[in-house]
Amino acid sequence: MATTSNDAPAEGPSVYVDEQIGSDEAGDGSIQKPYHSAAQAIVNHGPSPPLNILTRKSETEEWAAIGISALKKARKGAEGIEKKKQKALEAEARASQKAAEQAKSKDVVLEEDASLPEAVKTKIKYLEKHRGKRVRVSGWVHRLRSQGKMMFIVIRDGTGFLQVILGGKLSQIHDATLLTNEATIEIVGQLQPVPEEKSAPGGHEVLADFWKVIGHAPLGENSYLTRFNQESGPSLLADLRHLVLRGETQAAVLKLRTCLLSSFRNSLDGLDLKEVTPPCIVQTQVEGGATLFGFQYYEEKAYLTQSSQLYLETVLPALGDVYCVQESFRAETSHTRRHLSEFTHLEAELAFITFEDLMTHIEDAICNTIDHLLATPGVSELMAVLNPEFKKPTRPFMRMPYTDAIAWLVENKVQHVTEETEDLPDDQKVYVDHVVGDDIAEAAERKMTDAIGRPIFLYGFPSHLKSFYMQKMKGPEGQGPNGMAFTESCDLLMPGVGEVVGGSMRIHDADELIAAFKKQGIPSEPYYWYVDQRRYGTCEHGGYGLGVERFLAWIANRYTVRECQLYGRWPGRATP
Ligand code: 4AD
Description:
With 576 residues, this protein is of the alpha+beta class. The protein has 3 domains: 14-105, 2-Layer Sandwich (so0334 like fold); 120-215, CATH 2.40.50.140; 248-563, BirA Bifunctional Protein, domain 2. 31% of the residues lie in helices and 22% in strands. The protein starts with 13 loop residues before the first strand and ends in a 20-residue tail after the last helix. The site of 4-amino-1,4-dioxobutan-2-aminium adenosine-5'-monophosphate has 24 residues, from β15, β21, β22 and α15.
């Protein structure tokens, strides 16, 4: 039986709403075909004459007149439905207008005017000398703006950015309606300086007389600008690295990397080192078995190289001083901002040198590289974007024996966590002072380097902390407490990054080397070729490895080395 409320006069037609089996789409408000919501009843039957809305929550209930607050809610809901409907109608109208424009735009045909002077095909970088001429340039749409019947586009081609203006018919062709960021286009037109009060990359722009799309990019929800933004998390950015690296900052880092690599080569070539290419597939370790990536190589076990050092040593008698720029691989368990599983390793090896010569050489190589880099055309613009505060280090670099570093850490109350408590929760960890013989962990090393604020050559590490091949220091300086021996080894630490170079003199006596293998429990047979370097005319020699990504992170002021590789590799990341 139906009841009525004061606010829902019963004189209008009765409309039924069943919240369980009613349907807003298929219902008509009759008792046989009730609606699902009272809001839809109001929308379909209108506000007047006032409806007698009868509702029930389920089939087992009696029909009852809608209550006051439910009616208020239904009226609000009806307004919402009307608004939505209106919006949908407007969107439909816009879409059909766009479709009409697009259909019309299909009739607009653009043809290159053969009577115009021939255009010079060029890269953006070389445009300046063609000002006043007709030019032909291809690139990716970097920015895009429409204003009335004009389109302003900035294209990039890897050598620079160029502003292009499409006016009149050029902005009305079908392809113009589909154009979006990252599409590739070819433009032809007059290159002219921008008016004085305006600015554009290179100080000029092309007033196009012809253009065409080479490859479209997606519009809508897959468009380049909607795939990621500044708030996107590191995992999404890594998944979309192939798109992210098109952005100005990432591209600047990678361009700086290119210049840096050629500056390294220029610097080392200038110091009379020859570039060689050692293998990546090896069967020996260099920096400890724990970080080796092993794999099945036909019938045998092999590894991805951790360092090309041993190979470089064997090349000394053939080519003299050598270097390589090669990928090194480390199965690193350290998830830090300076560790990668694959990194670009610049390594060099020099014959007939002393430890002092080695450190002087590293300093020369680095300072010459920085001088060359900063003098490279285009680099000052990149540095202005990435690291305007960068100052090249002053020489000589500070040299600090390992024992002094330990004293500095104690004095400055930089402690380290004990081995027994390092895996416990933070509030249960125990911190103690460093003592001679301790490894200086990354955090402590960084605190010291940042506090000192300039490059530090930290040298003379205890032999038990270092690799098997390191030459021990001679004389009393080489003797530590309790029979500890120090090595002719050095790390170059840079503020903000920490260790960027690790180097040492190498054991050059064959018997001493065999004993060192034995001491570290490494079978020496697979190293026969390495030991032969000592047997067939040995010499005092040494070398170093420089992590290109760490060096770049320092120069380009990047928070992590992960940004300094084309496609970074770290635990859990090998795609794209
Ligand atoms: O100190 P490392 O391990 O020394 C060697 O590999 C020597 N065999 C090199 C040589 O003497 N030829 O590595 C040298 C440098 C480090 O200072 C660091 O810059 C970089 O390589 N490096 C890494 N960079 C990124 N991720 C990692 N996992 C790295 N491991 C080392």
